[in-house]
User: Fold Flavin-dependent dehydrogenase from Nonomuraea dietziae.
Amino acid sequence: MIDIIVAGGGPAGLATAIHAALAGMDVVVVEPRAAPVDKACGEGLMPGGVAALRAMGVQVGGHPLQGIDYIDAATRARASFRHSPGRGVRRTELHAALTARAAGLGIPIVTGKITQARQDEHGVEAAGLRARWLVAADGLHSPLRAWLGLGLPDRRPHRYGLRRHYHVAPWSDYVEVHWSQGGEAYVTPVGDDLVGVAILTSQRRGYDEHLAAFPALLDRLAGPAATPVRGAGPRCASACAPAWQAASCSSATPPDTPTPSPARACALPPCRRAPSCAAWPPAAPRTTSGRGGACRARTACSPEPC
Assistant:
């Protein structure tokens, strides 16, 4: 019997697997798609995320981020990172780097998709494997979360995310958050000649129509588009622990970042010999509780609450 099965081989799942392997645990990742996978993503790493990647031995390129600028037609507010920079990096590059690190540690990545499991007092079985723990890192629309009954009804209005990259040199080392009546645009430099622009809104319209609500931003994005437009509870039950990267926040500020995932992964090794979920480390909820509150505060300020 191995220690951990990780359902999902995205950044959250791979970070979990890497931390487990570094702690001396036997871990297998089960993922249906070949890496790297491109998704709508803010592509900004906060300083804590950069430090977490460094601790895992993962190196990424991208562009340094000094903080976040909040901008509307009349006002600008700047928040600089105090101690170290963040990093803007393509999701595909991050995913590839994490995959390479996992391979270097000898972590098996099995092709498959886990939608349910069978568990008893000794462990859990899924995808033909038996382990002490199953970590659900299978994304925002997690089938395992639904199967485990961990999902809660979401009474907030739905928000929609769209992202596209542009061939243009970054004009700032800060993530820019532009506000309008219909939503927000998040500009993240991810290379010397590449910026990503993600839009979050509660209104279902095309990307270009949303972008037109930010005329100052449009003037800077005169160059050709570099990529097509992409669109986008209880902490555990028995022997199954969640590691959903973006399941509790409907704001992209900070932009989608793997910071919480490595933090949760760090909490897994002490549970290696835990007989039940009751032994889940008390620190685990703290890895994301503050972030969720901050997200709620930011989205409450949005013209389109969520």
Q: What stands out?
A: The chain has a mean pLDDT of 82. Residues 2-49+90-152+233-300 form a domain with the FAD/NAD(P)-binding domain fold (CATH 3.50.50.60). The chain has eight helices and 17 strands. The two ends are 43 Å apart (CA to CA).
